[in-house]
Design goal:
293 residues; alpha/beta; Rossmann fold; six-stranded parallel sheet; 34% helix
């Protein structure tokens, strides 16, 4: 974005703006990562929201693993999205924002872990199962038509199942030991299994300036819906909120540190279905807009 006319004509005002830290050269680019069964076309409305309130913003919806390809294993997707992310972020000296929907929120977290000097300012996690998924939804029935939530672990917690993306974050509270042993994605992200990359991942994740967690009780897909705020079920299917999670208490990937820094924002909206989060203007104006500067 060009410097405003009044600034060009007033060197004193320009100096004051620079000293106050105000950005006069436009907004940071926004990189969007879609969710399962999605693609760029689902984010046309969100892109329009962003450019309407922040004119001149460069919005990039990464066109990878769209639709059925979104079922590919998540570590493979992370590698692909990493390459696309790098090509965009390297051209943004002032940093970028990440806006990641549903399954995409997990991809983005893994992506951030693996980039030592990333320049992500704000990470917006939009209705993403950050603490995993466990529940019967239309999506689940579409992927596993002959299985109920109580039997999905038999499919997911083996080598073949881990080649399907949803299995990479299937968190069955009744089969905790099998989850920890057989799931090669989410337990690593959450630091529930010790590994040699934990320290580096934590340091990389803590480079972000703000984490925005968005979700709501009427989502209908993310189960429990509190997973969008790092909540999950216990073995009695009672909710365990973020601050009572072991990965939070142990600060395995930096979440507790972010909270202590005051850099975690939680935004809850009722009445919003899963497929509506990225096209609801109220959600955008109340939960997202102010963080994309």
């Amino acid at each position: 974005m060009k410097t405003p006319q009044i600034v060009r004509e007033s060197p004193v005002l320009l100096l004051l703006l620079l000293l106050s830290g105000v950005h006069i050269d436009g907004y940071r680019p926004v990189i969007i990562v879609h969710g399962i069964f999605d693609g760029p076309k689902q984010f046309k409305t969100m892109s329009q929201f962003i450019t309407k309130v922040h004119p001149g913003t460069k919005v990039e919806v990464i066109d990878l693993y769209d639709n059925l390809a979104s079922l590919k294993p998540l570590w493979r997707q992370v590698r692909g999205f990493r390459k696309a992310f790098d090509s965009i972020a390297q051209k943004a000296p002032d940093g970028v924002h990440l806006l990641c929907f549903s399954q995409g929120g997990l991809i983005c977290r893994a992506l951030l872990y693996g980039i030592p000097h990333h320049n992500v300012h704000t990470f917006v996690s939009l209705s993403s199962p950050q603490a995993g998924q466990y529940g019967d939804t239309d999506y689940l029935k579409w992927v596993f038509p002959d299985s109920a939530k109580k039997t999905v672990f038999r499919i997911c917690y083996n080598r073949l199942g881990q080649k399907v993306s949803i299995c990479d974050y299937w968190n069955d509270p009744h089969h905790r030991s099998r989850y920890l042993k057989s799931n090669n994605f989410l337990p690593l992200l959450n630091g529930e299994i010790p590994h040699k990359e934990m320290k580096a991942w934590r340091e990389n994740f803590l480079r972000i300036k703000k984490l925005v967690l968005i979700g709501g009780p009427d989502d209908g897909v993310i189960t429990p819906w509190q997973s969008s705020r790092f909540g999950s079920y216990d073995s009695n299917e009672k909710g365990v909120e973020m601050r009572n999670q072991e990965f939070y208490k142990n600060d395995t990937f930096g979440l507790k540190t972010l909270v202590a820094r005051g850099d975690v924002e939680e935004c809850v909206h009722s009445g919003v279905k899963h497929v509506q989060w990225h096209s609801n203007f109220t959600v955008f104006t109340t939960c997202i807009e102010k963080w994309l500067t």
